[in-house]
Every structure is written in C-alpha cells, then in structure tokens.
Amino acid sequence: MLRAISISPEAKRAFQGWFVIFLMMIMLGEAYLRSSAPAAVALNFAEHNAAVQTAVGGVAHARLNWIGHIHYEGNDGWASFEVHVIGARTSGTMDVTLQRQRGHWNVASARLVTDSGRVVEVTESANRTDQARAVN
Q: Please, are residues 14 and 51 in contact by the beta-carbon 8 Å criterion?
C-alpha cells in the first residue's frame, strides 16, 4: 500500500538548505511589511479613529495580522493590511486600504468587523473632523 520513499543524504541537505532560505525570505518580508510607513499609517488609523474607538469601546491594543500587501508605482501606490483591534467592549479585525499619492500615504477605506459580527465602514474623514474639533 504505502511505500517509504528513500531520499539520498545529498538531496535531504539540499532540501533543508532551500527550506531554510524559504523561511528566511518569509521572515524578512514580514519584518519589512511590519516596519513600513504604510503599516504605521494603518496602525495609527486603527488606534485613533473615532468610529473604531466607538465600535470596540476604546482601542486598548492594535496589531497587524499576517496578511498585507504593498505596491509602489514611483511616488504613488497602494497598500492593504488586516489589523486586529482589541477594545474594552469587544475585539475585531479591520481591513485597511491605503493609497500613496506624491509620496504620502493616506487611508482610502477601512472596514471593521467585530467579533460579534457587527460591520462598521470606517472613513478617514470622520477622524479628520474629530481632529479639527479637538484643535478648535
């Protein structure tokens, strides 16, 4: 039925070497993603947006999930991240999409789904309005 496959010691070493290289590439990519400017913008948005604060009961902690993409086109581009948000009342996951125009990253859209299933469409304009009120 099932037969054991024998692999030569040289083939095992070669496989182990490629496996280590593969893992290193994954870890380097993840480190780059987490330390990037768009990731910082997404985390800041998740932590300080008024709609997110209201939905989860104040953000106590936010962290990037493993899923994220960054695409550059000169001074423009886009990025998307999943951010896990923990609040006093509930937790949830945000999908945050950013756009880069003339070298500056801005949140284009965000959607929060709480653990209870509540969906909140989050806009950056709500955050800017709250900041303007706080300044005046």
A: no
> How many whole angstroms separate alpha carbon 136 and alpha carbon 119?
31
- Burial class for 6, CB neighbours closer than 10 Å (0-12, 13-18, 19+): exposed
Backbone angles phi, psi at 75, to 5 degrees: -85, 0
What's residue 126's pLDDT? 44
Residues in the chain: 136
| Residue 49: its H or E element | none
- Per the rule left: phi > 0, alpha: psi between -120 and 50, beta: everything else, 83 is beta
Phi, psi angle pair for 69, to nearest 5°: -140, 145
pTM score, two decimals?
0.71
**How do residues 35-47 score in pLDDT, each as one tens digit?**
789 999 999 999 9
DSSP characters over 6-39: P--HHHHHHHHHHHHHHHHHHHHHHHHHHTSHHH
Per residue in 74-107, pLDDT tens?
Answer: 889 999 999 999 999 999 999 999 999 988 999 9
